[in-house]
């Protein structure tokens, strides 16, 4: 339980850390994607390379789906989006929404049950996005950022939510454990991302102090991209996939409140209520059905990796 909590704190605080890196430290979306990719790629290769790149029952299409969703594209798109909207909005628009998308995809492709509890979770996720939308109108009418700027961020956050949801559904279809799926996505992702990064990508590293580079490498690459995944994988084995995933309900609130000391972004009533709605929606969408707990021989992710 403690590991699942610490993991979600790391993931929640990642949103203000990313916004700080983009706005204040000169980090580019290309740099973010590189940092998030390189640590899992290097550190997991000795552990899982012998199993190959084919994504289990999902085959090669599944492998490429992993590489083009939660591989480098996720951090690259998030880096662009978070330059346009607050960190709390990113956390509500991505981890607060993607379990609802997983639920809908599961209904269509996996035959999941559409229970009243899960429909209520979907409704709360939609309500959280609607509340955040009110801040867009309020900001524009009050002389703040123009609607187009925030809207760009929201659309990119929603795209990231789809990336995350598709990734989880593919992992379920493939029958992969989370670490092997992470490695496959980053290994294939490196094959197309690194040539682009070295030729047409923009990097802020040359102008950044080495301390800032080391901080973002530690947090975004090592802690967020590798250590948190290891801890959450262990939490899945101890608690079960749904029980561990339910801790993801904390991420929107963690992002909103860690943005206060990191960025000085004070959440308004819409952000606070939206974070609560998003968290409640994630909880309802991930809580396991009542009944005796039957341990699985090989734990798999069900509807969220937090």
Q: What features would you describe in this structure?
A:
The protein has 306 residues and is mostly helical. The chain has one domain (2-286). It contains 13 helices and no strands. It has helices at residues 2-23, 29-48, 59-67, 72-81, 87-93, 98-110, 116-141, 147-174, 178-199, 210-239, 241-245, 251-263, 269-286. The longest helix has 30 residues, at 210-239. Residues 292-306 have low confidence and may be disordered.
Largest beta sheet, briefly? none
Structure class:
mainly alpha
Strand content: under 5%
Q: How do the SSEs run, as a string of H and E?
A: HHHHHHHHHHHHH
N/C terminus separation: 13 Å
Q: Which parts are unreliable, with pLDDT below 50 for 5 consecutive residues or more?
A: 292-306
Overall morphology: globular
Helix content bin? over 70%
Mean pLDDT: 84
Rg over CA atoms, rounded to whole Å, is 18 Å
What number of structural domains do the residues give? 1
Give the beta-strand count: 0
Number of helices: 13
List keywords for this structure.
13 helices, globular, 0% strand, 306 residues, disordered C terminus, mainly alpha, 73% helix
Can you lay out the helices and strands and say which pair or pack?
Layout (H helix, E strand, L loop, with lengths): L1 H22 L5 H20 L10 H9 L4 H10 L5 H7 L4 H13 L5 H26 L5 H28 L3 H22 L10 H30 L1 H5 L5 H13 L5 H18 L20
Helix pairs in contact: 1-5, 1-10, 1-12, 2-4, 2-9, 2-10, 3-8, 3-9, 4-8, 5-8, 5-12, 5-13, 6-7, 6-8, 7-13, 12-13
